[in-house]
Amino acid sequence: MSRKPPISDDQPRDKAGAKVVVLLLLGLVVVFGGLYVAAHYAAGDKVPRNTTVSGVRIGGHSQAQAAQVLQAGLADKVNRPIATTIDGQDVEVDPSALGLGVDYDASVAEAGGEESWDPVRLWNYFTGGDSFDAEISVDDEAYQAALAALDEQHGTPAVDGTLSFEGAEIAKTDPTTGEALDPADTLTALRAAYLQDDPSVVALELVDVVPDIDASDVQEALDTFASPAVAAPVTLSFDGSDVKVFPADYTAALSLVPTAGELVPTLDAAKLTEVVGSKVTAGAAVDASVALVDGRPQVVPAKPGVTFDPQQLEDGFLDAVAEPQGERTLTLDAQVAQPAFTTKDARALEVKERVSTFTTYFPYAEYRNVNIGRAAELINGTLLKPGETFSLNDTVGERTEANGFTEGYVINDGILVQDLGGGVSQMATTTFNAMFFAGLEDVEHKPHSFYIDRYPVGREATVAWGAVDLRFTNDTPYGVLIQANVTPSTPSSSGVATVSMWSTKYWDITTSTGERYNLTEPKTRRVDTLKCHPNVGYGGFDIDVVRYFDPVNGNTETRDDEVFRTTYIPSDTVVCTNPDATDG
């Protein structure tokens, strides 16, 4: 039989002591916990007390406040020019122009100004703080632009080697090494000096810049392409025929373009097609036409031609031109080129007979022989299809010496003055009357400002390049062939200008001329110029000419009478007052 141990009087005392210890520990936890929380809130996101950034004390401030303090403390340094030398020359550079700046928020964060429960962070706040360099930011675009400006002022650009063609010759530019600031080394040196308390002068060094296209690249392009290109002609073979194209002709379509460090052969396909096309002109299609043969209109048949595929030429030419002599042949597939205006089209115009003709006469003057004759030469043989409009200015072209014209008298501001092409209005008047009696549609014509008695009154026209034109439209269903010729004047005989229209007659044209009315008197004008042409004046007047249309040859159209109303101003009497004036 067991016994229970006797109860000791010490047990109640032990339990009481344990409770005291526990309560004491809990009290300490509460006290230290409160102190820790208070320390955390005291530290917040403040920078450790003893912290400096680039010499500016920012400790004990919140991040936002520390950034402001740092910005204020660095203001002088941030805006201070950086003293440098470039190749021994003193140069001050503006940091802002270089894109240099300070990231204040990042600088504060790097210094440890962040909120945390980490006891190490709290300990560092109250007892720590180091010295840091500010975080420097760089605007790369601004930096590259500023560096380029410094290179332009103090450096020397590298020059690429080039090859080009001048006819059958090769022009070469030798490459040249340049000098420039090294972007990485320059930025490192400038960053290091940017915020120093007592910055020293930064020595910036120019380094060699090798051209993209150096001497070896030029030599390779010369050996593999340029020299072979001008060594011999290229033979184009198509449809059993060979055509040689020579370097002096085709090199205008060749170039060597710098690409990825090489001179790459490049072809202007349009220029090459033009060159080759000029060499195979005999194989080009020829449109049908209508011409006078032995005084009668005849259809000149169209001719098909042989041409080539420009794409096939473009695809193979660069390879062919780089081949050695004896292998420089490019075979092209022949293609039949059809004329745009066929023999059938020309026959359908039914140009069969002379439907009108008109002749004018002009007094002797060598400039008239030249200018009227040249205008007739350019007009003669013009073929107007139904619906087409004739323009004398477009057909004859600008009256220049290069176009075969010389100086003569023209009417300007009511008086005669000298200008290129004087006399061409004689051909305009003659052509206008031939059009008038052929029954074609008058689109634009302008009579002379005052009446010239060798022209039919109210039925005449003048022209001036870029200002006044003679235009008419073939509004018949047939083609119209214009024939123009001139018999030159001589000191003893008048010149003769004749224009005829050949077609199928569609209208029978008659005309009437009214009486002169609204008569006006001439004035006397005194001209004090070295070049003055005296003139005996005569009066001006208005006059009406009517054109009547009578349909013929099955024409069922009807057309109202057409009235041409002309106002002639007086031809003033001109008195030359300059004693040195010359008539011409």
Structure description:
This protein is of the alpha+beta class. It has 3 domains: 52-154, no CATH class; 216-346, Ubiquitin-like (UB roll) (Roll); 349-576, no CATH class. Helices cover 30% and strands 30% of the residues. The strands form 14 sheets. Strands 22-30-29-23 form a 4-stranded antiparallel sheet. Strands 31, 32, 34 and 35 form a 4-stranded antiparallel sheet that branches. A hairpin with a 2-residue loop joins strand 3 and strand 4 (89-93). Mean pLDDT is 86; it is low at 29-43.
Provide the helix percentage. 25-40%
Largest sheet: 4 strands, antiparallel
Count of the separate structural domains: 3
Q: How many distinct beta strands?
A: 36
Mean pLDDT: 86
Classification by helices and strands: alpha+beta
- Shape descriptor: elongated
Approximately how much beta-strand content do the residues carry? 25-35%
Strand order of the largest sheet: 22-30-29-23
Give the count of helical stretches.
Answer: 15
Task: Report low-confidence residues grouped into runs of 5 or more.
Answer: 29-43
Radius of gyration from CA coordinates: 49 Å
Q: N- to C-terminal separation?
A: 169 Å
InterPro entries: Glycopeptide_resist_protein, Vancomycin_resist_VanW, YoaR-like_PG-bd
Keywords: Membrane, Transmembrane, Transmembrane helix
Domain YoaR-like putative peptidoglycan binding: 93-202
Protein name: YoaR-like putative peptidoglycan binding domain-containing protein
Observed structural traits:
30% helix; four-stranded antiparallel beta sheet; transmembrane; alpha+beta; Glycopeptide_resist_protein
